[in-house]
Specification:
By secondary structure, the protein is of the alpha/beta class. It folds into three domains: 6-92, Diphthamide synthesis DPH1/DPH2 domain 1 (Rossmann fold), CATH 3.40.50.11840; 103-207, Diphthamide synthesis DPH1/DPH2 domain 2 (Rossmann fold); 216-320, Rossmann fold (3-Layer(aba) Sandwich). The protein is 30% helix and 19% strand. It has eleven helices and 13 strands. Strand 8 (194-199) and strand 9 (204-207) form a beta hairpin. Helix 1 (6-16) packs across helix 2 (33-43) and helix 7 packs across helix 11 (306-312). The radius of gyration is 21 Å and the shape is flat. The protein binds iron/sulfur cluster. Iron/sulfur cluster (SF4) binds at residues 56-57, 59, 157-159, 241-242, 288, 290, 326.
């Protein structure tokens, strides 16, 4: 499904005269790791080492690859422009080899006259074709520029929908090309526009409104439960691209200003077993917003994002609910 362009990678490694190269891959690509190493070993004189820890985004860029290798190839994510990586790091973005079929035309009854286009990295190559098809039937199509966390026009991350926000006042609805609902929900909640998911792999269209209502009910329950807690633990991520110490300090300050106890922690992986030891009523995560939202069902105690904490403590109204976002440069 993805073109890994091993010849180009081999040429890059050879041009750098590197003898050992570290490879970092998201979980869905790790099954190709041994094929990639075999293919690159046939084409170069270098040896290779896999960075085996989980990797969810360019925010997870291996911070100490120079301990193991001369350079790093990071697969499956675009760079985060506000996080300079160094010229010994190569990003292999891996666009999906799929087409739109007739899905844009099928989506027309669900879209307004003015449509914003969004996509995850793997499907960005489909955006210009979607624009052409919308314009061919008389719809206007807008592709927004994101902030300095976003590498490409129209691209959305689970933590950043700034490319949607930049054109929200010009569009009636968005067409999001990608898999899963999280990015689309982030854009829907951040822009208050309907977002239609065009999933080119499942070959299906989905509205986000029902999923949005279900998610809001779950978040309301978590916020209500946390609002009773007298003791919170505020977690900052140790990952380079998710480290928001200032947000964590502000969350702890808010909790204390309400006469409650705030403990702070820094950790790399935030999961139920990492949190199980701490005797507090609720947690606040300033790391990737997906940790609190996507994994909510796994956590026995409430795990909130910073905007949700503000609602729990009466500093923000429920009507003003929004997904947490990591702003470029933060
Ligand atoms: S913080 Fe989360 S959503 Fe943002 S790039 Fe990293 S893994 Fe993706």
């Amino acid at each position: 499904m993805f073109d890994l362009s091993l010849d180009q990678l081999a040429a890059w490694i050879t041009s750098k005269c590197w003898s050992r190269v570290a490879l970092q891959m998201p979980e869905g690509v790790k099954s190709s790791a041994t094929d990639v190493i075999d293919g690159l070993s046939r084409r170069t004189a270098a040896s290779f080492i896999v960075i085996g820890d989980p990797c969810y985004g360019a925010c997870d860029l291996c911070p100490d690859h120079r301990e193991y290798a001369d350079g790093l190839i990071h697969f499956g994510h675009s760079p985060i422009p506000s996080l300079p990586a160094g010229d010994d790091v190569l990003f292999v973005e891996m666009r999906a080899d799929v087409g739109l079929g007739g899905l844009v035309e099928d989506a027309l009854p669900l879209l307004g006259d003015n449509v914003g286009l969004l996509a995850t990295l793997q499907y960005l190559d489909l955006v210009p074709e979607a624009v052409r098809r919308l314009e061919a039937v008389g719809r206007s199509a807008a592709v927004g520029e994101g902030d300095s966390r976003i590498a490409h026009p129209g691209q959305v991350l689970g933590c950043n929908h700034s490319s949607a926000a930049s054109v929200a006042d010009k569009v009636d609805s968005f067409l999001f090309i990608g898999e899963g609902d999280f990015h689309a929900l982030a854009a829907a909640l951040g822009t208050e526009r309907e977002v239609i998911v065009l999933d080119p792999v499942r070959r299906e269209l989905r509205q986000t409104s029902e999923r949005r209502e279900r998610l809001l009910r779950q978040r309301f329950a978590a916020i209500t439960a946390a609002s009773e807690s007298q003791e919170f633990m505020v977690i900052a991520s140790s990952k380079t691209g998710q480290r928001r110490m200032q947000a964590a300090e502000e969350a702890a300050g808010l909790i204390r200003s309400k006469g409650r106890k705030a403990y702070m922690a820094v950790m790399e992986e935030i999961n139920p077993s990492a949190l199980a030891h701490y005797r507090v009523g609720a947690f606040v995560s300033t790391a990737c917003p997906r940790v609190a939202i996507d994994d909510a069902g796994m956590h026995p105690r409430p795990l909130l994002t910073p905007p949700e904490l503000e609602i729990a403590l009466g500093e923000r109204s429920w009507e003003d609910y929004g997904f947490d976002a990591i702003i470029g440069g933060e």
